[in-house]
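Exercise 7.
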Amino acid sequence: MTSIEAAAIALQDHAALWSAGEISAGELVDAACGALVAGLDTPGLRILAACTRAEADYDVHDLLPPALEELGLTLHPVGDVAAQEAIARALARRMLSGELKPWEFTLRIHRRYGHELPLTQRLAELDELYALLEDGDRAVDQVNAEVTAEARRLAAHPGVPTGPADIPS
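Solution. The predicted structure, written as C-alpha cells, is:
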C-alpha cells in the first residue's frame, strides 16, 4: 500500500470516527494535514487542513463532505449500516496500531452496537468473554489473539478506495 493509499484510509477513518463523536474536529483537521503531507491534494482538502483548532468545531461539518467527495471518499449518514461498519473498521485499525488494547476495542464495539451489527457480532461475544476472565488468566492471551484476528478481518474489509485510479495523486 502506498503512503497515499494509507493517507486516504486514515482520512476516511478519521471522518467516520468524527461523525460518530469518537474524535474531535481538531483531530480530523490533523488527519487532513497528514493526508496533504502524504501527497493527497485537492482544493477542499487544503481548505479543511487550513482550519485552526478554534475554527474546526464550527467549520468541519461543512468542509468535510466536499473534501471527501473530491478524493472519492464517502462520509456515510450517521446511523447508516455503512457508517457503523466504517466506524468498526476504523476502531479495528486503531487497535491494530496500538492505540486501543484488545479489551478496549471489544468494549467500545459492544457498547456502541451490542449484538445488532452482524459485522461485529463476534467482537461483542468476545467482550462478554473478557468479563468472565480474571487478571492473569492464561485464556486472556487466547481471547486477545482472537480479537486481533477479528480486527485484522475488519481492517481488511473493503470500504475505501485502494487502487491508483480511485485516489487522486
